[in-house]
Structure formats: structure tokens, C-alpha cells
Amino acid sequence: MISFPVLLGVLLIGFLLLQVVPTDPATVVAGPTATKAEVDAIRNELGLNQPLWVQFGRYLGRVFQLDLGRSMISNRAVVDEIALTLWPTVELMLACLVWAVPLGITLGTLAARRRGTAIDRAIMALSVMGVSVPIFWVGLLLIQYVGGAGLLPFQGRNGPIWTADGFLSIILPAVTLGSVFVGPVARMTRTSLLETLGADYVRTARAKGASDWRVTIRHALRNAMIPVVTLVGLQIGFLLGGSIVTETMFAWPGVGRMAVGAITSSDFPLAQGAILILAVGFMAINLAVDVLYAYLDPRIARG
Amino acid sequence: MTDAALPLQSQADQRAIAAIRRKNAVWRRILRDPPAAIAALFLIVIVGSALLAPWIAPFDPYASNMRMRLCPIGGTRCPDFLLGADNQGRDMLSRLLFGLRATLGIGIVAVLVGGGLGALIGLSAAYFKRLDQPLMRLVDVLLSFPSILFGLAIAAVMGTGLFSLVIALSIASVPSIARIARGAAQSIMQQEYMEAGRAVGLGDGALIWRYLALNCWPTILIYMTLQLGQAILLGAALSFLGLGAQPPTAELGSMAADGRKFLSIAPHVSTLPCAAIFLVVLAFNVLGDALRDALDPKLRQ
């Protein structure tokens, strides 16, 4: 039940965002030419002169009715803005996981099987580099050498992923985002696999004459996957951070780019909504990881 | 094994034990690992040049000269600028030195503040058994939460800028240091001298400070160093997004963002700061892995 206090904290941050802002929302909504009376009227209308705890209660009520207010810039409902940007972000994260996780597991397995050899050292060196590289550098290099050469589009999303144009336009962002993810997955797979390869049931499997690779894949890898799933789950937050940078760089119309844009243009209702949905999304993924866990390791389900 | 457990050892034994200890000293083990030794050396040079930036930078990092705008590395327009000039004709080398200074400074302040708070939480959790559960749940929550979201939320509430950036990075480094501090403190709590201290009537404050903190700080400090690489990477990403250091401040993340517009005509303007961040973080990570291996006897082969 880790999620409940986090959710409350995030809601409080979202609420504070609409309170502690340096600019007075009533003045902003009223526009620069409004008279003092007009500003006061709008302040009354928005309920901004009520005590804070009343405002927080009202805010919670509105959030649970999915009313997150209106963007100060486009004047559209924040929920609608989020609905537009949510799928592109999900699409980008899936497109990243779909290649980065299998590649990471493959490299990690290879490194564990060839432990201590040059292959192992090379894969581990790559993995350290992967966690050290600023994601925006990977993006800049891809934009410069692949996008700049006209090989692939690098500006925006040209349609859903199942269309040809949409698929081409997601390649560079997905490669950028996944590049920082392969390393940690490979490393965790290697460590975890080395542990399971020493387990009794692996020795049993070897003793009954199973081939090396069969032992690795059928017996050890499946058990080694549990920490890897945890890692992937924990690193989803990390991925979320990466997707914010990636979306901004590639003009990808997702939640992260919207959040950054809203913050830099002081569009507080939109910023609040974007941060809220990012946090809720993160918690939903963590829950999904817990469920996947129980599937991989029945001991957990039985408690 | 402690000396107290071997009361009858001869002088020769003592000399042999001392020799083994010296041979296995952490820094010696680091030096025997070439990548880690290179990383350590590199970091000493980098931190040194960042500290000395105002004295060793060949030019003023903020002095622009439009005639040298976007001058490439080794360009004839700017023979004095070793690494070319940026979009305002400022010397890249000087800006990189000052940028390193800012980026490292932000990271170090954040890790010291956040790590200090984390250490306090960890020590309290280990010392006051009743606080252990609630404090560690709080730490778990912080740890599970993506740190870039702190950056976004704090930038949104307090406005963008260096102060918000340092606060966000500090919060991000609290939970992992708290865990380490708790682990280190728990093993100290088992020691007999803790009981002895209590028996002679020392108060909680004195026990925590003189017995726990003073025995734990080497471990905590080493993990703070490891955390520094992550803090630098996160800080650079936030600055790159325009949520941290603002132009014209010479900071590596915002310099990289600045150069983005000139990628096709002058790639060095963004590539150099990116490469600098990469190398510094890589060095911290390589050194960090080596330190962890050296400190954790279980992982030693």
C-alpha cells in the first residue's frame, strides 16, 4: 500500500502548484487590460478567496470528477489535453521496451555464459557507458547523423505506430529512450543469472544431461527473471524521466513534453495535470509489475 | 577479526597483519584495477580544473565576440580558442571549465544536503527502533518515485532556476543515502561499545553523534560520491529541459541545449558539453563500482 501516501503527496503538490504560484491566476485569466473589479469577480468565481483547506477539499473533489481545470494558454480542459498526449507517451515507452528489454536480457545472458571473457568485459563496459551517457546526447547524435542525413524523420509524430509514417517517426525517439535502458537490464540479468546458475536445481538439470544452453534458458533464466522484472519496474520511473527529455527533443506530442512546456510557460493548471498523470501512471505500472511478479514466482502469490 | 580477539599475537604476527591490511587497503585495491585508477585520476584532474577555472580559463566565459560566432575547433577565425567558439562567439574551453564548475558544484551541494538529511534519517531509524518502520516506509516511497518528477514539480512550484534545481537533486539523493546509513548504523548498534556508552550514562544525542555518526561516516561519504554521478546526470537533464540553470549561465546541461539549434552547422557547441558530462559521470560510475566491490567482501572473488 505504498501508493496511497504517494498519491496524497502528489495531489498536495498539484494543489500547491495552483496556490504558491508567483503570479495571481485571477489576474492572468482576466488579462492585462482588466480592471480591479473584473479581477475580483474572477477571483470570486474561481473560489480563490476561500481558506486553503476548503480549496484543497474542493480540489480533491474536482480531481476525482476528472476536472483538472483549464489550460491557461489554450483554454481547453486539462483532461482533454492529457487524453491527447497520453497515447503517444505510452506508444513511445512500449516501442522502447519492446527492443531494449529483449536486447538487454540477451546481452546479459551472453555475458553470464561467457563470464570473464572479452565478450563479458565488452558487454559490461557497454552497460556502464549506457548508464553514464546523458540521454540527450544520444538523441542529439541520432538527430545529427541519422535525422540530418535524411534517413529517418526526427520532428514530431507522423501518425499512429501501425501506419508506415507513424512507425518511421517513432524509430529515433524509441532508439534514444531505449539506449539508456539496455545497460541496466543486461547488468541485472547477468548478476541474477550468475546466481541461479550456481543453484542446486541447475546442477540437477546438468546432472540429468541437459545441454548447456538448455540449462541456461529453460532452468536458470526463468528464475533469474524475477529480479530483472523488479528492475524493469523500478526503472520505469527512470524511463519516465528519459521519455520527458526524449519527447522534448523529438517534438513528440506526449505528456512529458506537455509538462515541460506547461512549466516553462507558467501554465499551472496544465502543469499540475501533467505531473498528476505522470505520477499516477508510474504507480499503475508499479502495480502491474507486482502482478507480473506473482505470475513469475508463484511463491509470492501464495504469500 | 579484531586485535582484541588475538591477545597473544607476537610482534611478527602484528607486522604480518599490518602488511596484509596495507595490501588490501581500499585505495590500493582501486589502484590495482586499471579502469578504476584511470577514472580516479581523471576525476582528480577534472575536479582540480573545475576548482581552478577562474584562474586557468584562457578567456572570460561570458565575453562574446560576434566575429568568432560558431567558429569550429581549430578554425582560422579563432586561433586562440582551442575548442572553438559558441553561438555568441564565446570561448568554448573557458565555458566548459566554468560549466564543469557549475555542474559539479550543483551536484556536490545537492548530494551533501540531501545525503546529510538522508544520513540523519538513516541513523535515527537505526537508533530509535520505533522510528525505523515509519522512516523507512517514507524512504521507500521516495526511492520508488521517479526523481525527475521532483524536478518538474519543484520547478513548477518554485520557478525554474538553480535553487529549485539544487532542492530537487537534494531530495532525489535522500533515500539511497538513508538506506546506506541505516545499514551501516545497524551494524554499529550491535557493537559492545554502544552498550558501554549507554552504561556510562551518555545521552541519545552523544551516542548518535560520537558513536554512530563518527563510525559510519566513511561508508556514507563513499556512497555520497557514488550518488554524485547520478545527481550530475539528473541535474544536466533538468537544465537541458530549461528547468535548471538558465542561459547565459555556463552549465553543461544548458550549454548542450543552447547548441542544439546549431547542430548541423556547428556540432561542437553541443557535443563538447555532452561529452564532458558523459566522461565525468562515467568516471564516477566506474570508480563507484570499484569502490563497492572493494568495500563489499561478499562480491570479492
Overview of the structural elements:
The complex is a heterodimer of chains A (303) and B (301). Chain A is an all-alpha fold and 303 residues long. Chain A has helices at residues 3-19, 25-30, 36-45, 52-64, 78-113, 118-132, 135-147, 164-197, 200-207, 212-249, 255-264, 268-296, 298-302. Chain A is elongated. The model of chain A has no long low-confidence stretch (mean pLDDT 83). By secondary structure, chain B is mainly α. Chain B is 71% helix and 0% strand. Chain B has twelve helices and no strands. Chain B has helices at 11-23, 26-31, 34-51, 53-56, 92-127, 129-144, 147-158, 162-189, 192-199, 204-240, 252-259, 268-295. In chain B, helix 3 (34-51) crosses helix 5 (92-127), helix 3 (34-51) packs across helix 12 (268-295) and helix 9 crosses helix 10. The longest helix of chain B is centred in the last third of the chain and has 37 residues, at 204-240. Chain B is globular. The chains are: A mainly alpha (303), B mainly alpha (301). At the A-B interface, helix 1, helix 6, helix 7, helix 10 and helix 11 of A face helix 6, helix 7, helix 10, helix 11 and helix 12 of B.
